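pinging the channel bc i need a second pair of eyes. not urgent but kinda urgent?? the chain im working w is below, pasted from the shared doc
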Amino acid sequence: MKKGSLKNLSLMFSVFLLVIAFAASLRADEPKTLIIAGPSWDNFTNTDGSGLYHDLIREIFAGYTIQHIYVPTIQANIMIANGRADIKMCDTKEIESLVLAKQAMYENDFYALYVKENQKADEQFSMKNKRLVWRAGYYSQLDFSFPVTFTEVRSGLSALEMVIYNRADFYIDDMALITESFSELGQKFDPQKFGLERVGTRKYFPVFADSERGSILLTHYEKEIKRLLKEGKLQHIYERYGFHAPTYQ
């Protein structure tokens, strides 16, 4: 090869390295963006940016530009799997092709709501051979230690109305969402008319993509949760909304 050709080749290689370095520096200077997906839940993911989950994510991923896309829980799963969002808030069980964090963001009881006049007065509370209803994607057979017959509907309001009109025996949900469903109905929970039984406890975990980026974000989440817990900052966030911090591993 001629001397001039070698010189040109060396120059081109130097330019190539400079371009790569410049591009890398641009990426380093770009703000880190995080897209969260999931429903709007009162006191958790309020559309004004307040709520327990919003505050936790801002603290855990400080330095990121965070955007929350409000979609139903099943659609959020699809967005994470397709790479159109980074984290789903939140779920209680493993989801195919997605990864559940080990550290929960929330822990609480869930209840069975029923109309008292539709239950026999002398009958002991039981959900065996009864018709259950809940929001699509929120519960499953895995949440119960016995076989259940259930229907999934689009909203808590629909579930509540099914119980009121005797198309289901029990509406399954946590207290905050049962209260929200009554509010949407334009009523308040009336203990004279409705019965309420605690039927289980479970934890809610953020969901990540099964990818390199998902793994990086998940590792960061787990590390920061432990740091914030050790520093005593986590408890203050939960207390802000009247909740107890979950039990961490």
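so The chain has two domains: 32-106+203-240, 107-202. and The first helix runs from residue 3 to 29. — does that match what u expected or am i reading it wrong
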